[in-house]
Amino acid sequence: MNESSVTPKEKSCDRRCDSCQQRKTCSDSTAINIASRMSRIKHKIPVGSGKGGTGKSTIAANLAVTLKRRGYRVGLLDADITGPDIPRLLGIEDIRLHSGP
Questions:
Q1: Is the overall model pTM greater than 0.85, yes or no?
Q2: Which of 23, 45, 25, 43 is nearest to 34 (CA)?
Q3: How far is the C-alpha of 11 from the C-alpha of 33, rounded, in Å?
Q4: What's the rounded Cα separation, in Å, for the pair 101 and 21?
Q5: Which of 26, 42, 58, 63 is the most exposed place for a label (fewest CB within 10 A)?
Q6: 60 burial type by CB count under 10 A (0-12 exposed, 13-18 middle, 19+ buried)
Q7: What is the tens place of the pLDDT at every residue in 19-36?
Q8: Residue 75: in which H helix or E strand, if any?
Q9: What are the counts of helices (DSSP H) followed by strands (DSSP E) for the chain?
Q10: What pLDDT band is residue 101 in, cutting at 50, 70 and 90?
Q11: What band does 82 get if pLDDT is binned at 50, 70 and 90?
Q12: Phi, psi for 27 (deg, rounded to 5)
């Protein structure tokens, strides 16, 4: 979507569709799709810090592995734009990502 086609409502969109007053009339199908998929995830545990080098990726990877070993279904998203550490930490650098249903 280019900047000239963005309406004022869309400019202020914070992608929190579940609490948005415009959710029933929203035209942002990407935000609606993400919100729908995220709503099916029962528990979300964000790991964050305002500083680099604090061990966020290590904590997130260890937490995911521990929960998986205890029988939980686990997904792990690494939003690190400077270099994803999760594949290295889990020893899966050479595995290709495939999408599924």
A1: no
A2: 23
A3: 18
A4: 30
A5: 42
A6: buried
A7: 777 766 777 777 777 778
A8: none
A9: 4, 0
A10: low
A11: confident
A12: -100, 0
| CA 96 to each of CA 58, 83, 99: distance values in angstroms, whole numbers, following the listed order | 21, 17, 10
Q: Please check whether residue 26 is in contact with residue 43, taking contact to mean a CB–CB distance below 8 angstroms.
A: no
Residue (of 38, 41, 49) closest to 79 by Cα position: 49
- CA 11, chain centre distance (Å): 21
**CA 99 – CA 93 distance, rounded (Å):** 17
CA distance 3 to 20: 22
How large a percentage of the chain has pLDDT more than 90?
Answer: 29
Tell the residue number behind the tokens 């579940």, with chain if given.
18
Contact 56, 49 (CB under 8 A): yes
Candidates 6, 75, 86, 68; CA nearest to 37 is 75
